Amino acid sequence: MGNQSGESLKEAIDRLRKEKNAVILAHYYQTGDIQDIADCVGDSLALAQWAAKTDADIIVLCGVHFMGETAKILCPDKKVLVPDLAAGCSLADSCPVPAFAEFVRQHPDHTVISYVNTTAAVKAVTDVVVTSTNARQIVESFPQDAKIIFAPDRNLGNYINSLTGRKMLLWDGACHVHEKFSLEKILELKREYLDAEIITHPECKRPVIQVSDFVGSTAALISYTMRSDKQQFIVATESGVIHDMRKKSPDKLFIPAPPNDSTCACNECNFMRLNTMEKLYSCLKNEAPEICVDKAIGDKAVLPVKRMLELSAQLGL
Ligand code: SF4
Most buried of 2, 185, 243, 299, CB within 10 angstroms? Predict the structure, then answer.
């Protein structure tokens, strides 16, 4: 698509980004064209770290709503845009704040650790935020007998409990994308690609985790495929990540793990895929839609997010 001046969509986005001193941050689950035009592509931890240090006037967060909120919480004086405001997250939605705040009130002696995939309001009743990159280490930074509430992902919480011997109290939430990988179809693929390693995000269900050769955050999965001697990988996370894996290891084969409820060969997050290059252009041009966070909520929510960034820096993450 070009405009009247013959400028391509990519060129127009690039021009607007410079004119407006904007930075485009994209999550690994965005489509390849958005990843390719972004200033930075990363997982939730990297996106928060970049947002915290940017000197741009406008942050365009190509990801889902909670990621835009996290950027806004960290940079309340900057304009934070997302290409499509309807890009939500089933995991964040599985933890509504009234019910969660009541759960926290019922356990006043517990430290509250929340995954970054939560609304600003849930972060506001949290002691420390984590991402899948730092969750285990941050949990382990608390004494072994510390009483901890972990929210909202029950699969990630169970996985960390199993690794650390903790008995964290888990909120019963989940991501609809990571929960629907089919163990049977993954094992079928494994029989077809005997040398392939199964690599899995910890938001997946336990049976998929148990047959995996490597379990890690999006960034950890990418880096594992770069250093592994193996040439073939069955990838059990949102299939957008394969774009970056192929760029970094062009000679290796990446096979998306299939979901259990369709004939589609890969598993995509319908929320992430709401963002398109056209919407990215339009949001830069119109400086909308903008993410807004209530000041009282933002003032509370920023504390556990900053605590995560400080702990991550201490842990070298
Ligand atoms: S993949 Fe799952 S956790 Fe990630 S944004 Fe989509 S719904 Fe949320």
Answer: 243
| pLDDT tens for each residue of 157-199 | 999 999 999 999 999 999 999 999 999 999 999 999 999 999 9
Task: Determine if the pTM surpasses 0.90.
Answer: yes
**Residue 189 belongs to some domain of the structure:** yes
CB-facing half-sphere around the CA of 123: CA atoms within 13 A:
33
Other beta carbons within 10 angstroms of residue 80's beta carbon come to 24
Q: Answer yes or no: are the C-beta atoms of 95 and 152 closer than 8 Å.
A: yes
CA atoms of 317 and 307, how far apart (whole Å): 13
How is residue 256 written in tokens? 């998306």
Same domain, 252 and 276: no
Which of 117, 180, 181, 266 is the pocket-test mutation for ligand 1 (most atoms within 8 Å of CB)?
117
Q: Report which DSSP code applies to 78.
A: S
Q: Specify burial of residue 263 (Cβ count, 10 A radius: 0-12, 13-18, 19+).
A: exposed
Tens digit of each residue's pLDDT (9 = 90 or more) over 247-296: 999 999 999 999 987 667 778 999 999 999 999 999 999 999 999 999 99
Distance (Å, rounded) from C-alpha 203 to C-alpha 179?
7
CATH at residue 57: 3.40.50.10800
Q: How far is the CA of 5 from the centre of ligand 1 (A)?
A: 38
Report the separation in Å between the CA atom of 21 and the middle of ligand 1, taken as the mean of its atom positions: 29
- Ligand 1 and 91: CB distance under 6 A: yes
285: domain range?
6-87+272-293
Q: Is the CB of 271 under 6 A from ligand 1?
A: yes
Residue 264 within a domain = no
CA-nearest residue, atom 2 of ligand 1: 175
